[in-house]
Amino acid sequence: MKIILATQNQGKLRELQDLLADETIEVLSLNDIEDWEDVEENGETFAENAALKAREAVKKTGLIALADDSGLEVDALNGAPGVYSARFAGEPKNDERNNDKLLQLLEIVPEDKRQARFRCALVVATPAGEEYLTEGTVEGQILTERRGSAGFGYDPLFFVPEYARTMAELTLAEKNKLSHRAQAFRQAIPILQGLKRQS
Question: Quick one: three-class SS letters along 104-136?
Fold first, then answer.
């Protein structure tokens, strides 16, 4: 069975391919589609944005499609940056400026009020119009300065208490084990297995 993951991110593609290694499911990406135009992610939630991308990928390819949307939610900012995580500091998107803006907004927020989470919504969409949603979250808190050089986005500021390190200080294997996206991907595997049996 062939499926498409609606991303051009090779890291995400490898992550899903690794999880499906024993499943005889071939995973394509948007790099395999000619004339792909980015979908405007104008949903109000991660799930809405993931569904928009998944539906477009099904329409373009006729294959079962997976798409995810994820970001950071900070309690002291009423859940911001949320769906605007990638472009928090404006266009063009820039990790450093996003982190600077986050630190600035939390400048006077005490350590015990800096709870946050990474959240991922993943939608599996089929040519028959069925849609399945899986989600993953990682709880943590925002530090007052960056730590670690691995990872990307808000990873250097996101402290994971159970590992006593930031996301940017974890190994790739550790991060892939606990990440919000890995959780959502793992929950999607039985859905894909079921769809494969039906095909």
Answer: HHCCCCCHHHCEEEEEEEEEEECCCCCEEEEEE
